[in-house]
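Bench notes, bay 3.
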Amino acid sequence: MSILDKVLPGLTKKRILNNKEAIRVHSWMKVFFGDVIPHRFTSDEKLADFVRDNEYCCVGQSHSYNGVQIVPDRNAVLMGKSTLDSCDCYPVDGTIKCGPSTTIEELKRKLLDDDLKMFNSGNYMAQTVIGALVTGTHGYGAKATMADSVTELTFLDGSGRPVTLKRGEPDFPYAVVSFGTIGPIISVTLEATKLVSYQSDAWITRLSKKEKLKKGSIATSWAVVPYSDPKDPLIMLHTLRPASVGKLAQRTKPSLFSWARLAMFIIERYWAIDRIFPRLRRPLQRLADRIDIRNHRRTITDERDLDYLYDPEPLLKSQRSPDILTGLFSTTHTAYNLAFHVPIDRAEEVVKFIMVETDKWRSLRFHLKSLIGVRELSDKSALPFAGNYEGPTVAIDLFADTRDYAWLERLQREVLFEFDHIRPHWGKSAIVPEFADSLDQTDMDRLRALHQKHYPSGNLKPNERVRRLFKLADRGAPQMAETSAAK
């Protein structure tokens, strides 16, 4: 067997040497990548014909940081690049049904036409809805896991036949958050809810003040300044509660000529300063910590605002400032992001542990980028692979320069070693065998059985790390289809 046969089994030497069809697909921030044969579809029927005759994997919009959507040397069904973007709202039932190419923003705008909104969502609306659901994407507050709103889904089995599962059926909860082990999912139906205006409060304060300030809120997230005092860190706290009649927007600011005002100037622009002057990360954070600033801003959100969870000001950020600023500076576009779920009652302990550990690594020239994000998922999910399946959790988001992503994986290992019941975020965690300790073995067996039931020939190929964690056998060598697109 030649080297070419070993590197790309299933392809002839002629096709390897003259292949102009393969493209490189990347995870978000391009840390993980692989060469695949791309396939785009204009109908469910053509997609079914393709699935029946080929080995394949499914790719949404490639927003996952950890490469869970990357399966090299395979046919890649590019759901985000296809035109299967149907989206139908049923206001009487309070539900909406969409196809695999529909993005979160498109779904939200469709709901607005009938004065409805999603229960919760992540902060990146260019994701496909189905891609976000199957990787456990979440917001914060009640019903934080997006997939908890799914009432029905339809996927194609290994023979290209549609299989519909509804809430209440035994296999349903295993198919909803399934991170590439079930697919392609060709439609989902989600519950929606009525529009509400919220009182959004944002504080710069100390962690010790968090419980008092969040009292009465229905959703809470906080961001920790990683190089502040780990005994009582400086945090940015955000709470939501239904807007009350008579409550008005307000904002408090430090005196114009004061150290606190200077620190506020730095913090409000920290994402840009961090990008331009990375060496100043720790000194600037230590300065803000010593000044010990306090700040409060209250915003009354517009009930038709698409992203009030993350940006309570009117309109989208892209509509208020040039997109180039977002692309140059925001952590979504400039940093590697690793996340995992922690029981909510241990959140503060885990955050302080992370702060102490990373400060030890300064001699190794590693620094966390931006802030440590903490989103509280305040209820229990019914889905076995959701982050909050065992009860309320927080999702802890860590950021670093892309070249330093391995340091974040080391931090994850340290947390897994020190704490119990750490659950994965399927689009951001490093998917490692240690997560098996926090996932019920019966549930893992159920998902494996569901995959093997519907793909007995093994033609659907999940990511390698997922296969190892769930002990999914890789049956057969890769087989590439001869065409790069289905017309």
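Next record in the batch:
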Amino acid sequence: MDQKKEGTFIKDQNSFWAQSNDDLLEFLKEDLQKTNWGKAIIEGVPEDKVSILQNWIKKNKGKIEGIEVSIKPTLTGLTLEEEELFENEYSSMLAVDRTKLIKNKIERIQINLATEYIAGSEPPRADAQLRWWEQMLQKAKSQDKINAAQLERENEATKDNEKTAKKLKKAQPLLEKHSNIGKGRRKHNSLLNDYIDKFDKEFSKNRKAVPSAKALESEMKKDLTNNLEKHSFVIEVVDVNDCIKWRDDKGNIQSSAWGEAMRARITRIRKKRNKQ
């Protein structure tokens, strides 16, 4: 049988790394026995298991079951499963509560670190967890500043709308004039849809094949980001929820999701245009 040059074991589950050191090494040894590799990389190693594996490999002079073994620790010191769980937990936090919730988590971890445990009963990787959440706290604080600035801009925009939209008959032509989406009467009952329709026709007119909705969405983001001042109906191209914030022709603030929802919107606009 031909021997494969190199392979990788990706160990991502907490339950795997929760085993005793002896059981852990035995499982890895059994995994290696099942391969025909010349080299093997054990990936996803948390920081509390790095020295265990390094000593095991060193004791066996770099080879286990005749296979040259090396390890690839995680950058955070956590397990891959912990990284995913913490990322999901961070994303699920409401923006208004995120900083407070993270501070509470950090405080609990610090209490754990200061507590004296019986050997083997201490929470695993508390140091790595503390570092991770401290980084997330800085990220949350930075996002709070961005959100505060965005809220201030929205409040200013609302005040401007209230001043200019006292009478609908005066507000509607003013907003349409400043939107700079195109010339002539709008074909859609939405400033955003009207922009999409006209941008799509302009972007697609000299192409052999009609661009996919996904490709058009990407180009729209670039156009709006690079030419935001030309599209006064747009407040923010991509907010923290991956939505575009914009004003309708009555001055009300709307929020529309990018991704699948936007691509479905593009498809509907194209179908409507083709029926005309």
